[in-house]
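Researcher: Next entry in the queue.
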Amino acid sequence: MSALRTPPAQARKDGLPKLLTVLGVSNAAMFALYLGVGGLLVQTQIAEIDPANKVSNVAMVAGVSAIFATVFNPIGGMLSDRTHSRWGRRNPWILGGAVAALATMLLMSQVSTIPMILLGWSLAQAMMNLYQAALTAIVPDRVPEERRGTASAVISVATSVGIMVGTQVAAFFVASISLGYLVFGSAVVLGALLVVSLTHDPRPGEYEVAERPKVSFATSLGDFVSALGHRDFMWVFLGRALMILGYFMVMLFTLFIFQDYIGLPKEEAPQAVATVTIVSTLAAMVAAVVCGPLSDRLNRRKLVVTVAGLVTAVSMLLPLLWPSMTSMLVYGVIHGAAFGAYGAVDIAIVTLVLPSKGDAARDMGILNIANAGPQMIAPFIAGSIVTAFGGYAALWVAAIVISLAGAVAVLPIKSVR
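Model: Structure for this entry, 417 residues:
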């Protein structure tokens, strides 16, 4: 067992504005890479190499690389929990993961075949998830419980900014993909440097004393997945997995939806993706800023998450029934606001149902499988639906049903209102 000593809440509150600002910047850089590279740059590169098989190739690359994300996030979290150095627990993995991610972006800038794109993006997902696991654990480490909604809103807004900026930057670099990879990798390293240089990562003997007995591999493996045996944690896991699955089934093929479903010319589609992304993320930012602190004040987090999830699903009816650029813009506003509200409060719920504070990064990593796992299977499910039904209408229907299930999955949670 590990003995934990938590600092007074006031000590953590004093540096909270600076901490949340730094976390906002670093999370924005992270999601800019995820969406800018994994969205436009990789998909454009794949389409240029083999246009006839672009859907199946994108599905393969996205799915296989998500396996690496699924595996490396909880592993990175467990390693972070058990790291005791003069630089703290999280900082070595934040900076090391970011530098390694930059190296994978350098590799991506040099590849010109589908197998090498698959290799490069899979390695990038692995290194980025080592970085993300340690970064995500900072909230339960250092933010008081009564301020988790505010912290969640900051991260949600940062995620939206990262998506918006990442998509715009990627659209700009579509004509120079190699340079784009390096720009995104460098941004992540700069974000990591801000975290390790401007925030205080607790050293052994300050916020915690970790004394862990030696155990067998089987016991370690059991402990590793034990969080899923916690009832409320499991329901949060399921709800997030379904919401992310519904989101990524559509998002991964947004470029092709504009080209093949909406009917935009090939040269106009990337900018259309960027435009709708801006509209969606601005709406998400506003919703997150309102709903995160509101959930702190009302202490009613499940209600916000459920309503937001339902609106997310309903918004998909617009492009399903009215496929046009206008409907996509309206959908972007409504869906963005709903998903922004969901994300802002869901993160707070996550931090409040962690089974063990001493294993926060590990358990956050386990929960992040609910992010990465759906990304792994979403392209295969979506690609199969599009191929089997000859279009994207069935994809919208499937995403609606899955999102509805995710919206109500949080209702059985008992430890959070």
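Model: The radius of gyration is 20 Å.
Researcher: Noted, moving on.
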